[in-house]
Amino acid sequence: MSNQPAAALRLHVPEPTGRPGHPTDFSYLRLTPAGEMPMPPLDCPASDMRQQAWGLIRVMDHEGRASGPWVPDLSPEQLERGLRSMMKTRIFDARMQIAQRQKKVSFYMQCLGEEAIACAHALALQPGDMCFPTYRQQGLLISRDDVPLATMICQLMSNAQDPLQGRQLPVMYSFRHAGFFSISGNLATQFSQAVGWAMASAIKGDTKVASGWIGDGSTAEPDFHAALTFAHVYRAPVVLNVVNNQYAISTFQAIAGGETTTFAARGVGAGIAALRVDGNDFLAAYAASRWALARARANLGPTLIEWVTYRAGAHSTSDDPARYRPADDWQRFPLGDPIERLKRHLIVRGIWSDAQHEAAQEELKQEVVAAQKQAETHGTLLDGHIPPLETMFEQVYEHMPPHLVEQMAQVRAEQEAQRHG
Predict the structure, then answer these.
(1) Does the 26-376 domain belong in CATH 3.40.50.10950?
(2) What is the CB-side half-sphere exposure of residue 98 using CA atoms within 13 A?
(3) Domain limits of the chain?
(4) 416: pLDDT confidence band, cut at 50, 70 and 90?
(5) DSSP string covering 381-410
(6) Please, which residues have CB within 8 angstroms of residue 184's CB and are 6 or more apart in sequence?
(7) 147-177 pLDDT tens trace
(8) N or C: which end of the chain has fewer CB within 10 A?
């Protein structure tokens, strides 16, 4: 043994590759050229998918050309539908962001820059499948037209027609009939719920599969790892989506474990098939979703998909991203804008034009504006048209227990006293 004193131990704390005033170095992303990633067979063992978990599945290049084995067979009508869905989602977000600033909505969360992921995934789902989303998958609802925009806006405004009767934060929708499970403000719970729902579907001998969603930051929660274990052990028919948009609220993805590895690699380590996908490439997003959902339906087990994208806006209306990252990051992000990329692809194929795009933009804007006006007839936070007081106490228990009956009577009496005060 050496008599030399041991070197002092040091703790490593990951740092982001960009700070306000200093451009981000995006070389950490590990990009793969478009068209180069092979497509494995559906029954490929998870242990043979290291290439797909460490590389990046991409279909479209920067000029809008599509190539490689992941090019999906989508009709011009389906491609136009996908583009319009992304455009509508972005317009919806922008209008609701303004509504929050006008104090008509208390809180809002955009999915700016991430629209391709949910909109493409929605196109690959089948009726009856259940999504367990986070708060940036509004594209799942907007794409499928199962829920009117006005109904979504009523939820955001917590007005008299809010389908959740004011019991949830804005953006935390719940639409069972649309395959959209209640969003939870508690991080990562939906991953375990998705796996449990998928297991129940298999136990019943059903044909429906689940799709769970989580952000890169939330993968640090224990529920994420518990979900992977159950999904692997029981080969649950579920797709586990990790949306790596580079930041949690204000912490860089490396803090959640994304440094020197990928989030998709965690799937391989857990014995689960894994894909790492360009989340700003609509064609790649659809192809990967279809592959993973087909694998689940074929009783071949779960798939974990890491969607590499960028949160272009603030985490929420309560956040100021300029305090922790460069202001021009989104313009410099190597994977670009998902809407512009699909638009370019359609123009290259001769099935879209700038004029059509401008016309669609105006048409969709008017659709969202009309939905907002309709929702506002039922009230906003500004005018006090809210669900009845009783909804605070009802539908919690099958039969209201005495203590809630007493509390409801007390609040009613206080309200009555204020009216005559």
Answers:
(1) no
(2) 8
(3) 26-376, 389-419
(4) confident
(5) TTTT----GGGGTTTSSSS--HHHHHHHHH
(6) 172, 190
(7) 999 999 999 999 999 999 988 999 999 999 9
(8) N
